[in-house]
Amino acid sequence: MAQNEGMARSGERARHWRYEELPGVDLLRARYIHKTFVRHTHENFVIAAIADGVEVFHHGGADQYAGPGSLALVNPDTPHTGRAGGPEGWRYGAVYPSPDLVAEIAAETTAIRGTPGFTSPVLDDPYAARLVHQVLRAADEGNALAADTLLRVAVTRLLRLNGGSLPQRAPRTAGARVAARARALLEARMTEPPSLERLAADLGTSPFALLRAFRAAYGMPPHTWLTDARVRRARNLLDSGTTPAEAALAVGFTDQPHLNRHFTRIVGVPPGAYQRERKNVQDPQERLPLPSGAWQNRQLTQTRAPRTAENPTPPSYETLSESGLPSDCPVSPSG
Fold it and tell me: Are residues 225 and 141 in the same domain?
């Protein structure tokens, strides 16, 4: 709870949760000012709708900038970072659908063949951004029909505007094969990893050759990848009910504060807060209040787009259309 209180004092708020009626989808609503996400990856897609401020994230070898009304879009297993683009920080809502769910939606509503993904990491589309915020609001209110419908509409729109078939993996070079073997060894020895020199020697190569090959294959050096992998495994353990202290030792961190530090730098919330929200999915009768609860309710009222001459009737999940779908997102490729 101390880290949550520290975030509150700094003006930062975050909630990372799941809604049982959206299986395979993580949800996040946050405001960060000083927060910096270290290089990491996600197993799921990242669809982050910026409400205020600017988020800067390093992706594909360059800094990307996402401002109000735009979306930061990251494909699974793609290394990226995150930080504020100005002193005011940034506020956003995000959904993290699984690759299987995105593939299902793509097959039903687009002409994309192969593995679907996003072609550009930033898309300026206020309509889609509002859809993401409405998914979060519907999940908060327990409106399963709206949440599921709006999520599918949002993913369909984004794939049609900014989607394509992800490139097939290139044939593995000798360096890529060495990197894959190194990754497998690190996974097997997560709690007691070898030094870079020992790892290279075990693979019959030199430390710098292994370092270059690993960065080329996975976008980060082995020690950064290992921290990311440990946090991923810790998330799975926390989801299954393991305590943060036990999870920390099980994945190779020295203690719970060590896990807390890295977990918060990658996931955006401390492991205790993360587990309490996930536990609420299975245990709705034992909901634990979080310091950010009142703020979350305030934010729900702020995600509605203002009425203007150009936008007299901003969409809401109650009035999106009779079918629940915008006119440019029919439910099938033939429309």
Answer: no
* Spatial CB neighbours of 287, under 8 Å, sequence gap ≥ 6: 280
Query: Is residue 314, in this structure, part of any structural domain at all?
Result: no
CA 105 vs CA 50, 77, 83, 155: distances in Å: 23, 20, 30, 7
| Residues contacting residue 81 through CB under 8 Å, at least 6 positions apart | 36, 37, 38, 39, 40, 57, 58, 59
Return the CATH number at 231. 1.10.10.60
> Which two tokens mark 239?
């989801």
pTM here is 0.82
pLDDT of residue 173: 86
Residues 29 and 158 in one domain: yes
**82 plus 24 within the same structural domain:** yes
Give yes or no: residues 132 and 266 share one domain: no
CA 161/CA 158 separation, integer angstroms = 5
Quote the CA–CA distance of 326 and 54 in Å, as a whole number: 27
Say if CB 77 and CB 121 are below 8 A apart. no
Q: Alpha helix locations (H) across the chain?
A: 2-10, 99-109, 126-140, 144-162, 174-188, 196-202, 207-218, 222-239, 244-251, 256-267, 271-282, 293-302
Q: Which residues pair with 72 in a beta bridge?
A: 48, 122
Tell me: do 154 and 205 sit in the same domain: no
Length of the chain: 335
What's the mean per-residue pLDDT of the chain?
85
Q: How confident is the model over 275-286, as a mean pLDDT?
A: 64
Question: Does residue 151 belong to any structural domain of this protein?
Answer: yes
In this structure, the answer to whether residues 135 and 152 fall within a common structural domain is yes
* CA dist., res. 167 & res. 219, Å (int): 16
Distance CA 181, CA 295 (A): 46
Strand partners for 27: 17, 95
Decide: 317 and 137 in contact? Cβ < 8 Å: yes
Structural domain of residue 204, as residue ranges?
A: 176-281
Residue 308 lies in a domain: no
Q: For residues 37, 40, 42 and 47, what is the CA-based torsion angle, rounded to 10 degrees?
A: 40
- Kindly tell me if the per-residue pLDDT of 292 is higher than 50: no
**How many structural domains comprise the chain?**
2
Residue 335 lies inside a defined structural domain of this protein: no
